[in-house]
């Protein structure tokens, strides 16, 4: 009887041990951080100002003169283009980017767009921005974004105001 009692105790020990080793659990919490959505709004349209040209092709390029967030514009020309004494309005496209403070974002610029007078198109391309390719929002979650480009003239354009039939679409996305 002693042997049976000892065997019973040993078997109960194995059974308790098997139940203790069979299950284990742990818990985790779930969380999410919702950030301020990134947004972009236009402040100023791009304007190449007054341009005189002869029958020779040429270009007019607008870019930021200092390479920083500034409205100081560098306007340059090539080929059959000249700038009259009255410049007209010369401006980079200026945008206001807002979102989560100190976050970085990618900048996507368009390929080529057209500006038109009647049925005559002039190509606008080679876009560049300041900041270039990526930006970083300030401690207040804002940053100015300036965009310039190159206007290509073939020499046969008629005089008049050419305006965008295509738009200069700038896209920003968080990195």
What percent strand? over 45%
Q: Give me the number of helical elements.
A: 1
Low-confidence stretches: none
Structural class: mainly beta
| Multimeric state | single chain
What is the helix/strand order? Answer: HEEEEEEEEEEEEE
Share of helix among residues? 10-25%
Number of domains: 1
Based on the model shown, name its key terms.
175 residues; mainly beta; eight-stranded antiparallel beta sheet; three-stranded antiparallel beta sheet
Please outline the helices and strands.
Blueprint: H1 2-22, E1 39-44, E2 47-48, E3 52-64, E4 73-82, E5 90-91, E6 93-98, E7 104-108, E8 113-117, E9 120-130, E10 134-136, E11 142-153, E12 163-164, E13 171-174
Antiparallel strand pairs: 1-6, 2-5, 3-4, 3-11, 6-11, 7-10, 7-13, 8-9, 8-12, 9-11
Please describe what this structure looks like.
This protein has 175 residues and is mostly beta strands. It has one domain. Helices cover 12% and strands 46% of the residues. It is built from one helix and 13 strands. Strands 1, 3, 4, 6, 8, 9, 11 and 12 form an eight-stranded antiparallel beta sheet that branches. It has a three-stranded antiparallel beta sheet with strand order 10-7-13, with no helix packed on it. Strands 2-5 form a two-stranded antiparallel sheet. A hairpin with a 2-residue loop joins strand 8 and strand 9. The longest helix is centred in the first third of the chain and has 21 residues. It is elongated.
């Amino acid at each position: 009887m002693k042997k049976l009692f000892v065997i019973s105790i040993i078997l109960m020990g194995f059974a308790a041990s098997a139940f203790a080793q069979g299950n284990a659990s742990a818990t985790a919490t779930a969380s999410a951080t919702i950030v301020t959505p990134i947004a972009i709004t236009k402040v100023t349209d791009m304007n190449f100002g007054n341009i005189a040209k002869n029958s020779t092709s040429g270009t007019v390029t607008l870019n930021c003169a200092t390479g920083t967030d500034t409205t100081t514009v560098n306007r340059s020309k090539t080929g059959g283009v000249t700038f009259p004494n009255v410049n007209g309005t010369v401006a980079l496209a200026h945008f206001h980017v807002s979102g989560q403070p100190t976050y970085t974002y990618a900048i996507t610029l368009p390929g080529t767009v057209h500006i038109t007078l009647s049925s005559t198109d002039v190509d606008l391309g080679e876009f560049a921005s300041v900041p270039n390719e990526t930006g970083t929002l300030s401690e207040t979650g804002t940053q100015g974004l300036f965009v310039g480009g190159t206007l290509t003239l073939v020499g046969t354009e008629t005089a008049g105001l050419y305006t965008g039939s295509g738009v200069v679409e700038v896209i920003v996305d968080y990195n």
